[in-house]
TrEMBL record:
Lineage top rank: taxon: Bacteria
Descriptive protein name: 3-hydroxybutyrate dehydrogenase
Pfam annotation, one family: adh_short
Protein's organism: Treponema berlinense
The family this protein is said to belong to: Belongs to the short-chain dehydrogenases/reductases (SDR) family.
PANTHER family hit by this protein: 3-OXOACYL-(ACYL-CARRIER-PROTEIN) REDUCTASE (PTHR42879), 3-OXOACYL-[ACYL-CARRIER-PROTEIN] REDUCTASE FABG (PTHR42879:SF2)
Length: 252
């Protein structure tokens, strides 16, 4: 497909970071855009920014829901799930990062990471599939973590990496089970990327670990997302965008 005109696209976590660049790419390509975010003020700012950049485009709908403040069970009957059920293109960019060794993890941190980095994308996928099957069209894009394309060992972020590694099973299960329904499901696994959500310390550590000693740009991630969403030959792909990062070359 050349563009997304006539399609409704919803970006979970679309008001900042990588998610905002995904929102921009979809809107530029003509999608009827729905942006989810935690903060209504930030959502409105994102909407106005996109409307000012691209004239004569459809209206942008915003849907606030704070996963970390509202009871998680409220999601089931929320406006967000209602919108997801009607969308053609679903991108789940939201997923909090936690760098903590296993012996320091608390009960609440395990619960948060398991819910928000694995269960939440799964809930969104389950909510969207019926409508996509009915329309015989669907595009789903999820986001893994650096180095989570296969089972491995992690010393400082095993809980986060474990949840993100599990998304690979979800992606390839959707691709296998729903390809005959015109649905594709892929994931991008970014290397260390500069966003406003990470501290200067974590960004500096990430930069020093990356080949070339520089962080991945958000715009680069968005261009890879566009490629995956437009190409129906790509299904079940776990796309590493990390310049060949490996624990073996990290910090060289």
């Amino acid at each position: 497909m050349k563009n997304f005109e006539g399609k409704t696209a919803l970006v979970v976590g679309g008001s900042g970071g990588i998610g905002f660049e995904i929102s921009r790419m979809l809107f530029k390509n003509g999608a009827n855009l729905i942006i989810h975010g935690r903060n209504l003020q930030k959502l409105e700012k994102a909407r106005q920014k996109l409307k000012s950049e691209f004239e004569n485009k459809p209206e942008i709908k915003i849907v606030p829901f704070d996963f970390e403040r509202e009871p998680f069970e409220n999601l089931q009957n929320s406006g967000l799930i209602n919108e997801i059920q009607k969308t053609d293109i679903l991108c789940v960019c939201y997923g909090p990062f936690l760098q903590k060794s296993l012996d320091k993890m608390s009960f609440s941190e395990w619960q948060k990471i398991s819910l928000l980095d694995y269960a939440l994308p799964g809930i969104c996928v389950s909510a969207v599939l019926s409508g996509m099957k009915k329309n015989h069209f669907g595009r789903i894009l999820l986001f893994g973590g650096t180095g989570t394309n296969f089972r491995s060992e992690f010393l400082t972020n095993a809980a986060y990496a474990g949840a993100k590694t599990g998304l690979g099973v979800l992606v390839q299960s959707v691709a296998c089970g729903f390809s005959d329904d015109g649905i594709t499901c892929n994931a991008i696994l970014p290397g260390f990327t500069e966003t406003e959500y990470q501290s200067e310390k974590i960004l500096e550590e990430g930069k020093n670990k990356m080949p070339g000693k520089k962080l991945i740009e958000r715009e680069s991630i968005a261009s890879k997302a566009e490629f995956l969403l437009k190409n129906d030959d790509l299904n079940g792909v776990l796309l590493k965008v990390d310049r060949g990062w490996s624990p073996l070359n990290a910090g060289k």
